[in-house]
Amino acid sequence: MRIQLYNTLAREKQDFVPMDPERVTLYVCGPTVYNYAHIGNFRPPVVFDTLFRLLRRTYGAEAVLYARNITDIEDKIIARAIEEGVALEAITKRYAEAYFADLDALGVLETTFTPWATAHLDGMIAIISTLVEKEHAYIAEDGVYFHVPSMANYGRLSRRTLEDNEAGARVEVDAAKKNPADFALWKFTKPGEPDDAIWDSPWGRGRPGWHIECSAMAVADLGESIDIHGGGIDLQFPHHENEIAQSECAHGAPMANYWMHNGFLDMAGEKMSKSLGNVVLLKELREDWPGEVLRFALLSGHYRAPLDWTGELLAQAKVTLDRLYGALRRVWTETGAEADDTGVYEALSDDLNTPNALAELARLATEANTAADQKDLAAMAQARANLLDAGELLGLLGQEPSAWEQRGDENDKARIDALVEARLAARLAKDWAEADRIRDELAAEGIEVMDGAGGSTWRRV
Ligand code: AMP
Ligand code: ZN
């Protein structure tokens, strides 16, 4: 039971040692819900879902507490609500629901906590108050700011100096700030902003900054210090750096011991992003591909490396899943064995090496095929148990092989079932010509009929 994780704080792989193995905590920054999410947005939830599965397997399902938030207060949401002339909640509910449906299609487990920012205003105000008291924050003309030079080791996650940050800071708001690197904790309301985007605070009406939302939600659900904090590589600076600044200056304790960041999903060598316009929405992909193919494709690269999203990647993922489910089908009826420790667990324990884990899963499928070829019933039962157990760790192979192989339109399925039965009836009546005719008819639309001891089944090939 040794898990190694690459810790961005240390820039190296380290043994993962939780503060309390009976209460392992994980926080991952969630989406801002103002439009439909693209496949790049799902790399973090799928990567960290795989980590969640590994931790649950290691420490026990009840011992792992995982929070992934919904950012439902943010400038882009307000802009969208004004544009459509509807309440903020109409926007955030719509896109959060779509997001949850997409997560479900990707086989992402429910998290222990799903905090929404709007439910945590008190917590945000409490942290800001502490920061003001401790003179880490000050009230300016247009809001309350965190004063970056007040924190001696600011920048230790991203390894940026104060000078870097001053140079990179946005210029428009400089007038109100003491230092260009200072960032907003609370933004006072400006004329024309909708009522439902305004909250009271000790300093004046307005709304929280994005960074303080996560600091408040993380402490509310998981505590002042957590084991692992994750997110996309783009969040390292400024978002995570600022979460650290707020939480650590307020609480006087490390916010997280391990910081993990996933690389970008690219298209043609460029980051998939709304601003570049090179996005593929998940709800569109789901029309053409099973969610499991999308998950497989996302896991096919190591999480820290960039992953290029191509048609070929998807086609390859589908072919591999067909092969895995084909092997699982051949051993499906042999039950009762207990899974061995497999190379899949070992690969994931090595900083979530999913490419190696998928290679190990393919090896288990080969074992299943060999056992089936040899009609070795005990080996078949073992192979079935191993495939299912390793699959669960990766969030794959969760369906019955027949459900995978026959997936598609329900009416169509009923039609094919009826044809397969008619063929069986013809065979029983020794009407070979009719049986062959039906088999050929099905073959012409890409359906293979398989005759076994228990009757006939079919699959799409
Ligand atoms: P955004 O909507 O750009 O703020 O992104 C929301 C979340 O998705 C953040 O955690 C980002 O790190 C992540 N994300 C956005 N685009 C990509 C991408 N192309 N590859 C991987 N993660 C991404
Ligand atoms: Zn965050």
Helix content: 40-55%
- Globally, the shape reads elongated
Number of strands: 15
Distance between the termini: 40 Å
By secondary-structure content and strand pairing, the structural class works out as: alpha/beta
The assigned CATH architecture of the largest domain is 3-Layer(aba) Sandwich
Number of domain modules = 3
In CATH, the homologous superfamily of the largest domain goes by the name HUPs
Average per-residue pLDDT, rounded, comes to 95
Q: Which small compounds were modeled alongside the protein?
A: adenosine monophosphate, zinc ion
What is the highest CATH level, the class of the largest domain? Alpha Beta
Residue stretches low in confidence (pLDDT < 50, at least 5 long) are none
Annotated CATH topology of the largest domain = Rossmann fold
Report on the biggest sheet.
4 strands, parallel
